[in-house]
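#struct-help
A.M.: can someone run this one for me? Single chain, 640 residues.
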Amino acid sequence: MKIISLVQPNFQQGPKEFNAHYLPYSAGVLWAYVNQFDSIKSNYQLEDIIWRRDNINETVNKLSKCDIVGFSTYVWNKNYNYALARKLKEINPNCIILFGGPEMPITKKDIFTRLPFIDVVIKSEGEKVLRDLLDAITQNASWNTIPGLLINQEGVAHDTGNSLRISNLEELPSPYLTGVFDKIMEEHPDVEWNATVETNRGCPYSCTFCDWGSLTYAKVKKFELQKVFDELEWIGQKKCGFVTITDANFGMFVERDNAIADKLLEVQEKYGYPSTFAMSWAKDQKPEVFDIVFKLIKSPKFNQGLTVSVQSMDLDVLENIKRKNLAQHKIENIFALCDKHNIPVYTEIILGLPGETKETWKEGFYKIFRAGNHTGINVLQAQMLENAEMNLLQKKLHKITSVPVYDYMSGSYNYNELQECVDVVTGTADMPTEEMLDSQVFSWFMQTFHINGLTTYISRFLHKNAGIDYSEFYDKLWNYISTDPWIIKESKEVRKYYENWMINGKINHPNISNIEVHGWNIIHRTTLNMHLERKYNYMFDLIEKFVSESFNLDQQCLKQLVNFQRNYVINYDSIDEFPFTKQFDYDFLDYILDDKPLKNPVKYKFEFPESKDMSLDRFLENIYFGRKRNFGKTLITKEK
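D.P.: on it. Structure tokens below:
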């Protein structure tokens, strides 16, 4: 009997006190598949599945007696896996080291010169290839006839060709339902487990910055619906705190995904778990996708709204990255529906894509505002993923520069001895590094004032009432506040920390309260400081003065508009006052959203639908962790 272990470690997720970790889903799927065959059951014993980044030496000792160890490799565990495998090979040279996953450099001819401790790499889907490889090891047969491998032959990579994709996903047993994770969960009752559910596999898009489509092939294949239902039931019964549906395009199959959403809500109602859940929404969205979101948003435990991933609003950029964007009218319809029904909408854009300039980047924000999204823009920094076309083929063409960044992934900054990094784009032919820094500071400015709520309704009102374009409004606002001492300090420091990131691969920012500030959340820094330093009234006084001096508005209307805006943003020092109502002479909400008369007395109710007892530290944490549910802003309704 041969002893095998699998390795798929990840960082702790979310706030530290939750002690939340992902179950090692990929490793579990591999073992659930191979272990259904008698040839595997009778010849192999699964010893361990490594799911956490424990001390390397302790983990090596745990795996030292294994005959085979397989590693699932991603950007968040690549360096850990390499270090573990290298030490394991040193103390047990006879152990067969097997690697797979999206971060393996399978196109590099010198892969085994760089990684000599690896014996064999599975190039794509691993289930069938792993079974064939384990059978060959048992029979002491050649591996050369097994498609889908890169074999280390004295430092030279021998490619056995490509394996066939699994055509029928019903062949894949569930790691949950077959008990693969039972032992792990029983041994660690203190962990809040995050579960992963695949309802389908594949992505029809071939975006050059992503390796999803290239690794899983374009055709989308579906798992049996009953299996998905049974896994969700298991997740609820086992009290998993969080579930991620990992489909590339949830909502693509409207009827089926509606049924999955219904089942998720049913499980949550029955067991109280999962506490929260998330998914990646379909790129080409139909109104029916909104219907699914509208159904889910009624659950008090749904932790996000609708994500619309446009990546760029510039057509030339979209052509460069092979991404067909949503038609503009589709975006506007979806945004309007979300706006009307108080559903947070979240648009993802990526800084550093080939062809993007500083001017098109700024205009991209304004296009999104004009289209109707005012609650969420998530700025991602372009990454050079190992097997993505942008890394393999477009890097030289577009003069892309990058730097290893060590604080991009949530959790990565806590591991000083063995850090993980992502190659982040620092410049392109169309956006040199200095202009990228300008663009990052601009993104911070827009996040602070428009997305996080300081001037959202003011700019929307002026756009509608006076024809003031968002570009004009925010150009004027930037020029006005650039003389304010506190804003000067904030903007200079933000630029300095972004510069650290672009040059040294780390922001090196001190904590704000107990919030660890890193590359992925520095954009919220000023919002955090506004609450921590009690600058709430200071900022709104500055905004009121700006609007009064810059635009020809009736003073009574201006005063009430700014008051309406103030009440849209939560002031931590006043959360115990919610909910409250306020009388206005102007119906700003219906005027902006539904073209109804402006001069109409109205009473608005402002609500903070979360715990009024939360500490300032937790409040600040939620500004980042709760961004997809529009945390930090009030829910506004009209009193009848």
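A.M.: thanks! The chain has two domains: 2-171, 304-638.
D.P.: also worth noting: Residues 485-504 form the longest helix (20 residues).
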